[in-house]
Amino acid sequence: MNEQEYLRELVAKARVAQAEFETYPQERVDAACRAVCKVIYDNAEELARMAVDETGMGRYDSKIAKCRNKSKTVWYGMKGKKSRGIIEYDEATGIAKVAKPIGVIGSVAPTTNPVITLMHNSACAMKCGNAVIISPHPRAKNTAVRTVQLMNEALAKLNMPENLIQLIPEPTIELSAGLMGAVDLCICTGGPSMVRAAYSSGKPAIGVGQGNVQVLIDRDVDVKSAVEMVIDGRTFDNGVLCTCEQNMIVPEEKRAEVIEHAKNAGAYMIDDPKDAQALRDAMFPFGKLNKDVVGATPQAIGALAGLEIPEGARCILCRTEGIAFDEVLAKEKLCPVLALFTYDTWENAVEIARANLNMEGAGHSCVIHSNNKDHVEYVTRRVNVSRYAVNQVGGTCLGGALTNGLNPTTTLGCGTWGNNSISENIYYHNLMNVSRVSYVIKDGYIPTDEEIWAE
Q: Residue 174: CA atoms inside 13 Å, Cβ hemisphere, count?
């Protein structure tokens, strides 16, 4: 059987399952969604262990936390929400909104999140009455197989249709590309080349842009608390998440204080120019990120650079010599290395963030530690990203948390700035068609031409 025949067979099975599933009432649909989230929560330790062992990326404790926290927030966010049939009626406009399934959703998943991306996309697809076919990353295929097995076992206990969630167990680049064109819509969570392929597939696609989270620390905050949050975000799962803090921009006169608090929080400071250059050369040979540093420990990264990093260090904090294209460490790093920048005025801080993002990561995210509302709003006017987290840990909060109102997600849209079709955290409402029923507005007032054109 060739690749096209194989994909046609998967889609045919998915359509049979979806045709039955879309007839189910909201209660049964929600039971299915809860089941796939709860089974990941219940098996977090096993799946976290598999993910670390198979991919060689990240931290076991962080992956347990990701499985548990993301499964909770994804389910809690959709719990009790209407997603089938009439979901809204506006008396004033006479418009009724009717949710309809898209059909078969494809999901191309990354090696950095081999469990929660599968869970999130499956739950969101099913919430709207869809079936899903998953193409995992080849380096995480065994973890994906186990994840889907657990989700399908949970669905079987509820007598859900067979093949509601399917997996390509031996994924290839060709199969991932073929899946994008075979389904009704594809969610592509991966590198820029994969996202471009999704948008070129001839089918609707939701892709994500590159991350490079800038962190601005204002003069009016508790520096110790802010720095501790930054270090927590930078070290979560060894920094593989696109939401993890990348560059810390601090007041010039507080540089020494920031470094001291960072050291106390577990950072190892590289302030020697020669050592900093050795780190650059190891991390970005020929200007491109070395794949060996992705999700690696600070000690392993240091060894690549010929630097000895103490065993207890949680991350590396490094000096910089310029911004944007003049400083390679200003790029996304996907590992526990944090670049340190300083500013004199708040406007200068914002321009540093803006320049870094215009080089890489436009449209993604920014973290602002400030108690000055005017300063926060100034960032939003100058820096084009899709989400700004204020006084929060970027690594664990930008993807949605119980402590904020962002949609819980594993896929973060970056708007047109990041060559994406959406500029929000992707959630179940992005995986439905919405039909509108138009009724005549009762006792509606029709303005005169004079009233319409009046200034």
A: 5
Strand, helix or coil for residue 412: strand
Residues 154 and 251 in one domain: no
Collapsed DSSP state (helix, strand, coil) of residue 222: coil
Q: Which residue, 150, 127, 126, 131, is CA-closest to 46?
A: 150
Tell me the pTM.
0.94
- Is the pLDDT score of 193 beyond 80? no
Residues 144 and 188 in one domain: yes
What are the residues whose beta carbons fall under 8 Å from the beta carbon of 198, sequence distance 6 or more? 108, 180, 186, 188, 205, 206, 207
Q: How do residues 356-384 score in pLDDT, each as one tens digit?
A: 999 999 999 999 999 999 999 999 999 99
Q: Which residues are catalytic?
A: 242
Burial class of residue 424 in the structure, from the number of CB atoms within 10 Å of its CB (0-12 exposed, 13-18 middle, 19+ buried): middle
DSSP 277-319: HHHHHHHSGGGS--GGGTT--HHHHHHHTT----TT--EEEE-
pLDDT, one tens digit per residue, over 22-33 is 999 999 999 999
Which residues fall within 8 angstroms of residue 286, CB to CB, at 6 or more apart? none
Examine the domain organization and report whether 143 and 262 are in the same domain: no
Give the domain range for residue 76: 3-208+426-438
- The verdict on residue 60 lying in a domain is yes
Mean pLDDT of 151-157: 98
200 within a domain of the structure (yes/no): yes
For residues 275 and 257, membership in a common domain is answered with yes
How many Cβ atoms are within 10 Å of 91's Cβ, its own excluded? 9
Indicate whether 196 pLDDT > 90: no
How many domains is the chain built from? 2
Both 49 and 176 in one domain: the answer is: yes
For 45, 158, 300, the CA distances from 48, given in Å and listed in that order, are 5, 25, 21
* pLDDT-derived band at 350, boundaries 50, 70, 90: very high
